[in-house]
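Hey all, sorry for the wall of text incoming. These are the two entities for the joint prediction.
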Amino acid sequence: MQELIRRYGISLSVIMAAMTAFWLLALVVIPNLVLFKFSFRLYLPVDQLGGPNDVYTLKNYVTFFNSPIHINVFFLTILYSSMVTIICLIITYPLAYILAKVLKPTDTATFFLVLLIPLWVSEILRSFAWFIILSMQGPLNAILTGIGLIDKPIRWISGFQSVVIGLVYAYILFMLFPIYNAIQALDTNQIEASQDLGASTWRTHWRVVIPHAKPGIASGCVMVFMLCAGSVVVPTTLASTNSRWFTEIIQQWMFEGLDWNVGSAYAFLLLALCILFVSLVMRVLNVRLVDIAK
Amino acid sequence: MNSQTFAKITMRVYLALFLAYMLLPLAIMGGAGLNNTRFPSVYPWVGITDRWFIDLWNDQRMWGSVRNTTWVALAVVFISVPIGTAAAILLNSVKPKVRSFLYGFMVAPILTPGAVIGISTLLFWNSFGVSAGLYLSVLGQVSFVAAYVMLLVLARLQSFDPGLEEAALDLGASHGQVIRRILVPHLYPAIGAGAIIAFFQSVENFNVTLFTRGNSDTLTVYVGSKIRSGITPTINALALLLIVVTIICAFTYEVLRRRAEKRAAALVAAED
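and here's what came out:
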């Protein structure tokens, strides 16, 4: 802080500190504390506010734990988000390696330039694209019946399969970029040395490339899991009645039930899940937060 | 065929398949905006029509949502860029312990689901009597967009030589001059990139906006309600337009970025 004042003077330092404080306090920390507090209060008519019923209680959380359906949806959301994360990892790891170490840098640059298009098109349109592709009369069924692979159209948008397909498509680039960045920073000599010393391709990857790519893998997994578990757009576009997502239940409490207190308890559960996942990944892969958020 | 050329071909095929996977869905969606069928589809292809674009043009709600989106995005840029820049400068000149503590809080919004940010913003400002509306969407979006700007500026600060500031101070520059003439010019590329990313993050945002918007529409909310309330190819027409705009912006951004990189490289070469 003294360093800051010495360089930029008292008034400018105060302005910069004030802007940062406004961001961290008014937009990040306190809103989340308010959310936390709200989740322990009851939804009451105005005349009862401050009355004997206006107390701190665990009732909103009890609502969740007493509802087998909501618990079920919560765990299915975790299950399918993890599945999408793993699928993305499997698809992008070889891709990131090829882009970082095999392809010529100019070709890689062109490749990424093209990828900017799906990256910058909004999430809602990307899931809408799959809504069209997967619909009964859509191109996918037309192609599959056309080449004789299936006899009659498949109902793709049913259960969680369409949600998983949409989520992988929507968030796969958030896995590719960090892993690419991590592998790119690896000295190619290390890979060659490993090969010269007789290591197989698998062993080179397992012992040299993957350990180096760990921060990127951690970053990608955290981003993809968080985006999946918190996704609103993809499930509303591609889910059917037998596949509900936890964010849809939060929306129900907020917009249909108009019970913001239960809503915030559910939102807090989602937040807790993400915090848990981040710390789990940091623990398992042994990386720091600075490595994840870059 | 030896194993090495086989591996090479496999890699090329893999790359090509991935590109096709990323781009074909967008092409199909955009193409459906030109097809003359009631339900958006590219198969069977009936014929090219401009009727969906005309429908879209006449949709007043769409125009209102475009206006709202633009205002929100500009507001997000004008708030989050200064905040993110100030936070990065601050972070760069505090003790390591304070630094990692603050850093944790600053990147947290990136790792928080949008729905949680939206709801917490709504509840917090509601307790001051501010009801839902687009200004809350702006504040909610700023909370995580500022983090992106902060990361970009922080990365740029690593290549900054603090000796330049010392020299300027020794030569009698005021603190304001040090910032205006030395620090900020060095940060321009990061600030510019931050502004573009902030704008796009805001335009694309759905989750935070959904919970904070009140009754106002933004473009993504408009598309979302259209998809739910009955699908016509006007959404595809809109999608096609947005993809074209995206392509133009992405390429301009990239060209500018490469030019800046080249200039920086030339500068380094000249210094040597």
